[in-house]
Specification:
The protein is 47% helix and 13% strand. By secondary structure, the chain is α/β, with parallel strands linked by helices. Strands 3-2-1-4-5-6-9 form a 7-stranded parallel β-sheet, with helices on both faces. Strands 7-8 form a two-stranded parallel sheet. Helix 1 crosses helix 8 and helix 3 runs parallel beside helix 4.
Length: 272
């Protein structure tokens, strides 16, 4: 039996992690979400009565809520600790998703507000998450801390394909990759694997309500991805993406050189 804790478990990749991992009744899965009641209703409706799934309240922008979630998790897992700590929750900014960074310059307040929210949620929140839950990871047998990152954070991909969009979001993900490497530098000697994994382009409903203007920016981005990977036909359904990501984190180890690494869902630098 393995114990998993997953942030952002209310929808998208996070919920699919909870669903697929808890298919095995031997696994214990704890999902951290902002809206506990709504997520519990969703779990009951879509997964049924699974005694191996627990939903706890936590908000990456609230240290107090993360601290309480860690305490509540400790009560659930006891001396088993946590085998896999998954940092999936994030703020996906739409402000910068469709336009180049230079086009945002006149929107001063929004640019500053979104940048701060991105850093607070996607970086600082995860620092608190790791620090608060690491004592439980230390008790676990597997000792893996996985951050769901993004190919948007890869400098070579940005420069080679001239990807102009999602600048602020990309910067927050790149910053988090550095944090992952810093945690690895500290805890590698204790046998804890920290690794960042990009899931690829996954269909999670981010682009459902885009405007015609935003669609133009999105199609430009998708066109560049097709140049990079001619086999790319569009976003991967979320239920198909999860097994590949899980397979990669199962294979990754400190011994095989993955400590602090930033890799794709394939375990390398091939982002699609």
């Amino acid at each position: 039996m393995s114990v998993y804790v997953i942030t952002g478990a209310s929808k998208g990749i996070g919920f699919e992690f909870v669903k697929q991992i808890s298919d095995d009744p031997k696994n214990l899965v704890i999902g951290l979400v902002r809206d506990k009641a709504a997520t519990e209703e969703k779990v009951a409706a879509e997964l049924g009565d699974r005694s191996n799934v627990h939903i706890l309240h936590a908000d990456l922008t609230s240290y107090a809520s993360l601290k309480q979630a860690a305490a509540d998790t400790a009560k659930i897992v006891g001396e088993r600790g946590i085998d896999y700590l998954v940092a999936n929750g994030a703020f996906p900014s739409h402000f910068d998703a469709y336009d180049p960074i230079g086009a945002l310059g006149d929107k001063v307040e929004e640019l500053e507000d979104v940048s701060l929210k991105l850093f607070q949620t996607n970086v600082v929140g995860n620092i608190h998450y790791f620090n608060l839950f690491l004592p439980l990871v230390m008790k676990g047998k597997v000792k893996k801390v996985i951050t769901i990152s993004s190919g948007h954070a890869d400098l070579d991909l940005i420069n080679d394909l001239e990807i102009e969009t999602s600048a602020l979001y990309s910067a927050s993900k790149a910053a988090m990759n550095v944090i992952v490497a810093k945690f690895n530098a500290q805890y590698k000697k204790d046998g804890v694997l920290f690794v960042s994994i990009s899931p690829g382009v996954v269909e999670v409903g981010h682009f459902v309500n885009v405007t015609p203007e935003q669609t133009q920016g999105l199609m430009g981005f998708m066109g560049k991805l097709s140049t990079y990977a001619p086999h790319f036909k569009g976003p991967t359904p979320v239920d198909e993406a999860i097994p590949r990501i899980k397979s990669t984190w199962e294979k990754a180890s400190i011994e095989s050189g993955y400590g602090g690494a930033f890799i794709s869902q394939f375990g390398n630098k091939q982002w699609l």
